[in-house]
Design brief:
Layout: H1 3-12, E1 13-15, E2 21-22, H2 23-37, H3 46-60, H4 65-73, H5 78-88, H6 99-110, H7 114-118, E3 123-127, H8 134-146, E4 155-161, H9 164-172, E5 174-176, H10 185-191, E6 192-197, E7 200-205, H11 207-210, E8 213-217, E9 230-235, H12 244-257, E10 258-266, E11 277-279, E12 284-287
Parallel strand pairs: 3-4, 3-9, 4-8, 9-10
Antiparallel strand pairs: 1-2, 5-7, 6-7, 10-12, 11-12
Amino acid sequence: MSSATSLRSRESKLVEGEYAFTSEHFRRIAMLTREASGIHLAEAKATLVYSRLAKRLRTLGLKDFQQYCDLVASKEGAEERGAMLAALTTNVTRFFREPHHFDHLRDQLLRPIERMVRDGGRLRLWSSACSTGEEPYSMALTILSVFPDAAKLDVRILATDIDPNVVQTAKAGVYSEEAVSPIPSALRDRWMAAERGERGNRWRVRDDVRSLITFNQLNLIADWPMQGKFDAIFCRNVVIYFEEATQNAMWIRFGQVLAPNGRLYVGHSERVDMPGFVSDGLTVYRREGK
């Protein structure tokens, strides 16, 4: 290799590590990620991308990122593309994260329609990026604080995520003592069961809570199979990873599946400035219409 070629090779490296990781490798991975999930990866995320995907190279026994890029771009690489997205997806969550959202859900949405639901009305909520389940279970516990007999009513929560691994964790509904600490003790003790294990106490969500929730894998930029309208959608700290055009398209799609006066709950750094939505509190939006 000539000295000029060697210099260009060193200059193109984004991250120093076990595997060479160049700007071209990053560009290909970022393009595939955007096409598959809508997530925009800025080059400032190169170190994060490298650290998460280097583990995939080791698992697959690949010698370099060139081989990995070729694999995930190929027809045979569909399964690994899913694994790549799972590796690159951020799954930061906790029970009752942003508590004001659950106070709003209880006081501004659920209590005003309590009589309607008890008279046989339909109530549908969607946790659109449910991660390991803390968000939809928090939604369920909020519902149960108003409707302790929700399992006998027409009340359902849909919980979806692009990562099938976290969906399986959410379905299991088992959490550490530390994870359940934000749950009000009265709700935790009534709707979760403590279990002793070798690694300390765990808490298992009871079946009458789990029965309210349907968990499924779903890519938000793909087709949505749902038919009915939702009274509330939680999509928090998701669209910040999308480019502006994708963000706007997502808000429009949510508006199309929200019932009139339905609420959209978003992350603390997200804003919905679209026709048909009006502010209904801190990072809460109401769909206009009758």
